[in-house]
Amino acid sequence: MIARAAADAVGITAVADPIPATVMVLSRNSAATLREALDSVVDFAEIIVCDGGSTDDTIGVARRAGARVIDQDPRFQDATGRLRDYAGARLQVVEAASQPWVLHLDADERATPDLVAALRVVAETSEPAAYRCTAHHLVDGTSVASAANYPMWYLRFFHRDSVTGYLGPINERPEFAEGVPVRDLDESFLIPMPPLRAVLRKWARYQRIVLADGRHRSPAEWWREERPRRWREVRWLAWRVWKSRRAEPGPHMPLRYDVARVGFHLAGMVSSGLGACLPVGRMNGGHR
User: Fold this and answer.
1) What's the pTM?
2) How many CB atoms lie within 10 A of CB 285?
3) Are residues 158 and 228 in the same domain?
4) What is the C-alpha separation between 152 and 188, in angstroms, rounded?
5) Are residues 211 and 251 in the same domain?
6) Could you list the residue range(s) of the whole structural domain that residue 13 is in?
7) Does one domain contain both 211 and 271?
C-alpha cells in the first residue's frame, strides 16, 4: 500500500492490516494542525495531501506521516494561488486515489478511534455506499456538547466508484450515481476551533468565493431560490443560539463563536445576492 510504503521509508511503524480507503486532505500552510490530523488516520492504506503551495512545513509533515503529496490543479486556484474551487480539488483527489473507499478529512480535523473502527467495518464489509457522520467542536481542548450549528452531519466516507462529481466551490459535496444508498454512522470526528480572529479570516475568504460563485445565478434566480434558503439558515442558527443555551446541557460553544457564525451566514446571503447582481465574471462551481 502506498501510505505503508512511504511510512516504512521514513521509519514510521506501518499498520499490519490497513483499512482499504484513501484519506484525502486539502492543505495550504497547515503544518500547525496537520500532524494531529494525520496521526488520527494512520490505520488507512493511503493518505493523499493535496497541497496549494505551502511555504511552511506542511509538505514535510505530510511526507513524514507517510502521505502522498500532490499539487492542487492551478485551475482550481485564484491569482494568488489560494484555492477558490474546493469541489474541483476534491474530485482531483478522488481521481488520484488508489483505494476503493475515500475519507474526506480537513487538515485541522481529527478522526476519533471509534469513527476509525466503524469505518474499518464499513470498508471491509459494505457494498458501495455513502456514509454521514457527526462532528463535535473542541475549544481549548474541551469537547463542546452544545452549539448553534449542532447537530452537524457531514457526508465524509464513500465508495470511490459511486461518485459522479462534486458540487459547490465551498461547503463542497459529492454527487452519487442513482441508487447509491446514504447511511448514517453513530460515531463522530472532531473539529478544533482556532482563535476567533483566525476563524473570521477564514470565513472572510469564503465570502469572497461565495461572491464570485453567485455570478452563476441571475438576480431573479437568487431572489426566488437562493435567498429563501439562506434566510432560513440564518433564522435557524439565530434560534439555535438561544435554544442551545436555554435547554441543552454544556459545555456550550463560547457565545462569540455562535454569534459570529450567525453573522457569517447572514453575510453569505448578502454576498451571494451581490454576486448575482454583478455583471462581470463567472466561476466554475461544479465538476463532473
Assistant:
1) 0.84
2) 23
3) no
4) 10
5) yes
6) 2-192
7) yes
